[in-house]
Every structure is written in C-alpha cells, then in structure tokens.
Amino acid sequence: xxxxxxxxxxxxxxxxxxxxxxxxxxxxxxxxxxxxxxxxxxxxxxxxxxxxxxxxxxxxxxxxxxxxxxxxxxxxxxxxxxxxxx
Length: 86
Known about the structure:
The chain is of the alpha/beta class. It has helices at about 40-55, 70-85; strands spanning about 5-10, 25, 30-35, 60. The protein is globular, with a radius of gyration of 12 Å.
C-alpha cells in the first residue's frame, strides 16, 4: 500500500530555509509548488520531476489554483517518469 502526498500551489516564495528561488517546499500536510508571479507551467513540471526523483509517485493535487493546464502539466511528467521506471 502506498501513501499519497498532497501537492499545493502557491504564488508566494518558499521560506528561506528551502533555498533562494526554491520551487518546492514541504510541510506535514504535503508539498507546495511555488510559482511566483503568474502561472508557470514549467515550474509545475520541474516540481513534479523533483517529487518523482524523491520517490513520490502518488500525489493528490490539493487546494486552489489547479486548473486544467496546470493539472495536465503535472500529470504528464509523472506519467512519463512512470514509463521510464518500468
């Protein structure tokens, strides 16, 4: 049985301990993708690759901001990575 991580979107910068210009941070409730200004689909894809590299392949897209394009950008990376791992 695998666990699912909640993934949230935020327009705010990550806290300093995550590094300057960090695109992803973690809390006890899940991971947050930090988009900065606008709706950066590239940042979503980079964050999805980072999550996959950390072994997180089951995610729930949670909170506000997940529209069709951002959802597809995230899922596309995870699906591609799953094929590579098989």
